Amino acid sequence: MGVEVVFASTLDMEGFLRHLTSKTRLIWVETPSNPLLRVTDVPTLCQRAHQNGTLVAVDSTFGTPYFQTPLDWGADIVMHSMTKYMGGHSDLLGGVLTVRDPALRAQLFEVQKVSGAVASPFDSWLTLRGLRTLAVRMRTHAHNAQKVAEYLEQHPKVSRVYYPGLPSHPQHELAKQLMTGFGGMVGFEIKGNVNEARAVLQSTKLFLLAASLGGVESIISYPVLMSHAAMTREERYARGIQDNFLRLSVGLEESEDLIADLANALATL
Ligand SMILES: *Cc1c(COP(=O)(O)O)cnc(C)c1O
Fold it and tell me: Domain check: are 156 and 242 in the same one?
């Protein structure tokens, strides 16, 4: 369709903005990002993009509308995967776009109608049911994730933890400005490599080895062999995803049980 795409990191905002040209129609950012939980300064990005006549879309799946509201930051389009926290029970597929501008909504609705991306009645019903508990679930996800992140950060077999709620997170101050909570996703690097990562994955009992996230049950995943397996090792390393990196979707179990499960798994190293 003649659409040209440029991938760039928003960590270096000025470098990112240098890619803007008179032809740039849309910027798409994910914050916090999967799987490294990087946080983008969307208010600044929107200001500069709008001066250029460029729309900004934010994938807010990790933050959820409970913890962050990118339309208030100036974003034109906000996307959530309903499959994740909004549904909350790993039993449906869906997505939502929210916009301010009625003309943009009409355009998007036209595309949806023509392409047939329409939610099934059952998935819609499950989504509505899940949304009723979004607030209580998100509070517990964030509470448990903070505990797990703090535990991992002091563990001798762990070299680095990625969670926006930790003061050690490079954008912790920005996250505090933008978010009212830091969500349920935690990344960490273990001391070791592929074999050690596999040993941890095979040893957890509460954290299930699975690809999705945002459900009531805790999930552990290994981006190297799962979500980011299609990338070459060089590409992955260039984006900061190393062979010793594991991702957790921290669920609603007791945080003490989750920590004990990770302690047992790390003890195998
Ligand atoms: C899972 C996910 C998606 C894709 O959503 P699906 O509902 O699985 O199609 C997009 N963005 C983020 C951040 C996700 O985690």
Answer: yes
